[in-house]
Amino acid sequence: SGTSRIDGRGHLTIGGCDAMELAKEFGTPLYVYDEALIRQNSRRFVESFKQSGFAFQVAYASKAFSCIAMAQLAAEENLSLDVVSSGELYTALQAGFPVERIHFHGNNKTEEELRMALEANVGCYVVDNFYEMELLHDLASTANKRVNVMLRLTPGIEVHTHEYISTGQEDSKFGFGVSDGQAMQAIQHALAKKQFNLLGIHVHIGSQIFDTTGFVQAVRIVRAFLDRVHEEMGYEVQVLNLGGGFGISYTSEDDPVAIEAFVETITREVAATWDERDLPRPEIWIEPGRSIVGNAGTTLYTIGSIKEIPGIRTYVAVDGGMTDNIRPALYQAKYDALLANKASLPPAETVSIAGKCCESGDMLIWDIALPKVNSGDILAVLSTGAYGYSMASNYNRLRRPAVVFVQDGEAELVVERETYEDLIRKDRKRAVLSQI
Ligand code: LLP
Fold first, then answer.
1. Are 29 and 157 part of one and the same domain?
2. Are residues 79 and 218 in the same domain?
């Protein structure tokens, strides 16, 4: 996909850079992002919306992969930015991301976080619950600021994805329930608040969704709800935010619809439901994370130990694992991989890829067909761009890998590899303890 190729020597190249050279220059494990592909994914969303005629914002969900360089890139592509913590906000601000296009999310924004966002004048707050509504209003009043607010609703939709990443169902920690009356009450409260400009509502039905039916359902439920709101309060939304969750293909088993199809279905559905009642069309905002960066990321590892259990399995261990990609351990997520130095050789054996952490669950891929594997080979795990680096940890005191952006044969280091000093930076040595 993107600008990944196999060169004459049988090496994997990404963005015109030989993966073997990247591994040598920057070390492994290494996250490599194909910049052209991030831009292409962004533009596919933006162009699809332009064609629809709707006013829109495409907010990149920075939880999928946040660093200063990524926020800069999102700004350049005219995306907006969804942040869910003061840390993501801080990163965006340091990148010089236009504050009016920052949307602040989260189900438990702290007072400190809200103060920071108010100070920065972020573009809007996606208010999740009554506690936050009061807190934000108090802080905004004190600061004498009027803020743009969206209300996050829980539409009561079950989508077919992993339980941990499905968020639209009623029994959820997120948002105001539509069916239990909380959403209606939330609108009433928000409209009564002097410091609030209620832009509209937000729903997010889940992540890694493959088809459009959940989005169609969401639009219909929201529309039925907004009809009641209109009747009771005369309020009409200016903005409809339908969240993220657009699925990508990790292995040949995955078959998501294209970005264009998601946008086309959403815009068609909103147009149909709104035009029918002859009401002004709202702006449509979405928040893709995975579908912008997921397939643009590749992780390079060096293969070390190889343990063959005759007749059972061969464990091929890499120099990273659950610390740089928790998804297989956490969601049984599947990945595809190839040997970057033997990319044109046919498969010769089936092996399982293990990480180096002290956990039996630290397996990246079970049963993958590869050419004959040797220690020292470079393994490229594909489509690791979303929720890999952003969910990375220092378990076993491993140092988090570096991140490079590649394009047109040039590689640029955008996050340095952590050092041993980084690992102990916050440690405090105790004074020598006295002996008894
Ligand atoms: N908007 C909201 C309100 C969200 O909660 C999320 C993701 C997104 C947008 C972006 O969703 P995306 O387009 O990336 O699917 N760690 C999990 C995914 C958790 C998603 C959480 N919310 C994983 O690795 O699969």
1. no
2. yes
Flag whether 359 is marked binding.
yes
H/E segment holding residue 75? helix 68-76
- 76 and 130 both lie in a single domain: yes
Record the tokens describing residue 49, joined without a space.
Answer: 């919306």
Clarify whether residues 281 and 148 are in a common domain. Answer: yes
Structure tokens at 85: 């913590």
Residue 67 known to be catalytic: no
Region of residue 316 (left: phi > 0; alpha: psi -120 to 50; beta: else): beta
Bridge partners, 102 (sequence order)? 81
Ligand 1 atom having least distance to the Cα of 208: 15
* Atom 19 in ligand 1: residue holding the nearest Cα: 165
What tokens were used for 248?
């990508």
The CA 212 to ligand 1 mean position distance, Å, reads: 16
Q: Is the ipTM of this complex over 0.95?
A: yes
Mean pLDDT by 10 residues, the chain (436 residues): 86 98 98 98 98 97 98 98 98 98 97 98 98 98 98 84 56 91 97 98 96 94 94 96 98 97 97 86 97 98 98 97 98 98 97 97 98 98 98 98 98 98 96 75
Among residues 293, 323, 338, the one where a domain terminates is 293
Same domain, 375 and 414: yes
Which run of H or of E encompasses 91? helix 86-94
Q: What are the angstrom distances between the C-alpha of 251 and each of 166, 254, 381? A: 20, 6, 11
Residues 113 and 219 reside in one and the same domain: yes
Report the length, in residues, of the chain: 436
Model-level pTM?
Answer: 0.96
196 and 300 within one domain: no
327 is in an annotated binding site: yes
Q: Is 315 annotated as a binding residue?
A: no
Rounded alpha-carbon distances, angstroms, from residue 231 to 26, 228, 236 = 61, 5, 10
Question: Phi-psi region for residue 245, left (φ > 0), alpha (ψ -120 to 50) or beta?
Answer: left
Number of domains the chain is built from = 2
Residue 303, both tokens:
């293969």
DSSP characters for 361-426? T-EEEEEEEESPP-TT-EEEEES--SSSGGG---GGGPPPPEEEEEETTEEEEEEPPP-HHHHHTT
